[in-house]
Specification:
The protein has 99 residues and is an alpha+beta fold. 30% of the residues lie in helices and 14% in strands.
């Protein structure tokens, strides 16, 4: 598969992984747009958040659980989560990912 994020999940491409589980992998963004900018992706491939929502509520919840744990581990008192869905919304890697 030629998906960049699938290659990170399979460890074909290195990433600064900050958390992982059976359902998700979280890593620091290589071009951060904020002081803390982590991408959390499902370990299975689906193109975007809409596809993920249709596929599995359990995996979707796992992404948000990971976000909360990472924020807690980093001592953040607040955080923002974003899914860009589709090129018109700014999605550039077509594997669902939570910022």
């Amino acid at each position: 598969m030629s998906c960049l994020f699938c290659k990170i999940v399979s460890l074909e491409i290195p990433a600064e992984i900050v958390a992982e589980s059976e359902l998700s992998v979280a890593f620091n963004d290589i071009s951060p747009q904020a002081p803390t900018h982590v991408l959390i992706i499902p370990t299975i491939h689906t193109e975007n958040a809409a596809g993920l929502a249709k596929m599995s509520a359990t995996i979707t919840a796992a992404l948000f659980t990971a976000a909360d744990q990472i924020a807690s581990d980093r001592g953040l008192t607040g955080y923002r989560t974003v899914f860009n869905t589709g090129a018109d919304a700014g999605q550039s890697v077509f594997h669902a990912h939570l910022h």
